[in-house]
Structures are given as C-alpha cells and as structure tokens.
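Posting this for the archive.
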Amino acid sequence: MSQIALNLFTVRDFIKSRSAIRKTLQRLKKIGYDHVQIGSLSYLGAKEFRQLLDDFGMTCCARHVGLFQSETDALKSIEEHQILGCQFSAISHMRADSAAGYVELAGRADKWARLFKKHGLTLAYHNHAHEFQKFDGQLALDIIFENSTTLQSEIDTYWVHYGGGVTCDWIEKMKNRLPLIHLKDYAIVDGQPTFAEVGEGNLNFPKILDAAKAAGTRWFIVEQDICARDPFDSVKISLENLKKMGMD
C-alpha cells in the first residue's frame, strides 16, 4: 500500500463546498493520491466525507485537530476518526511564552494522547518554527516531548529547517515516535526562504526519506503551505519527485 498522502490544507481554496470537495478528490485521485490528511469537517460531517472518500477508493490516513478543551470534545473527535477509518491525528499548534507554559501544554496534550490510545488511535504533535525558541536554555519542542510519554510526533521538514534545526537529526530523535511526517521543501527565491515542491528546493529528501523509514514512519504526507503555481500542479510535482526517489 502506498505510504504517500496529501494534506488537503494544500488545496484548501478548492474544498469549500460539498461539490468542490468531490471535484478536488477526483482530481487528486487522477494525479495519483489515494490517501489524504484532513483538518476541519466544517463543510461535511464525518459520515459524508467518508462516503466521498469511499466513492473514489481513497482513505483518510490522518487528521489535524486543535488542543481539546474538554473530554467531550476529545471523545467527539475520536468518534469522527472512527467513522472516517482514520487511525492517526496530530495537534496542529500549541504556543506558550515560557518553559512552564510548554510543560503545561505538553501535559494536556499527553492526556488526550492517552485517551486516543485507549480507543485504538494515535495522537501526535505537529511542529512549526516557533517551537525552536529556547526557554531556560531548552527548545520548546524538546520541552513538549520530554514532558509527554504517549504523545507522538509529526515532524514538518520545512519548519524544522526554518527554525534552525537539522531535519534528519529530529527524525532520528523521534525514532519510533514518528508515525507521520510532513514533506515540504525549502527554497530561496530572491534571497528569501519560501515553500517549494518536494525535490524542488534545497532539502536533502533522499536522506530525509531514508531517515524517516528507519524511524518507523508510517505516512509520508505532502503539504505545501503556499504554492507559487497552481496547487494541483505543485502536488503532482511533489508526488512525481517522491516516486523518482523510490517512494510508492
């Protein structure tokens, strides 16, 4: 089974109605994506989204969620994951202004990770660049993972590099704790960092992919926050380049 998926955030401007979602899934299937990661279900309920995926022979491999404020919210999300047939999820963002704040957030996230695990699901955390700020001499991202035991990781290749980290080092650090990885390339255009299709920027993706495989990564999820060309062309380029690198 292919391990490559696409985060629908990349094509977020094309999924703002039921008909648009159907058309977008159809286009992605034609490009060669069989699996997607989703965020909000604001336009469709879980059952309806699952039916659309089934219609095209696609699956939801993972979701993005916020940091739950109550057990009721967490259990509702768990039910949606089960309807979607989706085992993995990732908290998309947490931010604090102190080490103690990150310790508190890590504890809350780990609480929900344990609840997800109880129901046969896996909850991870997705990094951006702000977690590479140091508090009391320690990176916020280290604080998060050192103060959680069940919470898994969803390393983002672009944001690690943007934050000054070494992507492969972080992949190795998260070995056996990295079921999901976001693949996006890092390029310099007119002297400024920018998002690029996988294989079209400066990151060493063959090395990154090998490291992730060795770390036990299950899903390799293409994502591009901003596309300089048509997003569907961008996701096609990323998929084609991944296949050239030996991914299927």
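The chain has one domain: 4-244. The radius of gyration is 17 Å.
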